[in-house]
Amino acid sequence: MYFVMSYSDTQFSLHCYNFFMLYVSKEFHFEASHFLTTYHGKCEKLHGHSYRLRVTVLGDVSMNGLVLDFALLKRIVKRCVLDKLDHSHLNDTLENPSAERTCLWIYDQLKDMDTLLKEEIADPNLAAEIRSYLRTEDQGGQVFPEFSQVRLFEIRLWETPDSFVTYKAKL
Hints:
The structure is a single chain. The chain is α+β, with helices and mostly antiparallel strands and 171 residues long. It has one domain: 2-Layer Sandwich (Tetrahydropterin Synthase, Chain A). The protein has four helices and nine strands. The chain has helices spanning 70-85, 99-110, 113-122, 128-133; strands at 2-7, 12-17, 22-34, 47-59, 88-89, 135-137, 143-145, 151-160, 163-168. The model has no long low-confidence stretch (mean pLDDT 84).
């Protein structure tokens, strides 16, 4: 981030220019069972996994010094993914829930990050201090969120400690 200060007799201005994007990731864990309906082998039988999920967003560093608050990302992933998949039977949610299809389903739940962030910041249960930290006022007093350039970049889902699937968004 590059800051430029300018002065005049009546006004002081601070301009922020970003010359790079940062990737912010958070990892999660959930337990789920499944069986593969179009695969013949040991995975066609009912079994379960301790899944590990990494969600990565991409964005500019905002004036508050963050791309996205980790707590906000955690709330979104919990609401949109973990509350639906943790301790569930994946076949109830997905057809033939392979790691690949599950990864794509997770991406679909999170791909509209802009809308999800706006929903979270509007949630009356979000602590006031977090909400105020995530907003900035322009010179006209209009409040706008600091995360307008945050996009979902990558979903990585581990089915076992050494086997995973990665989906990278097209930018």
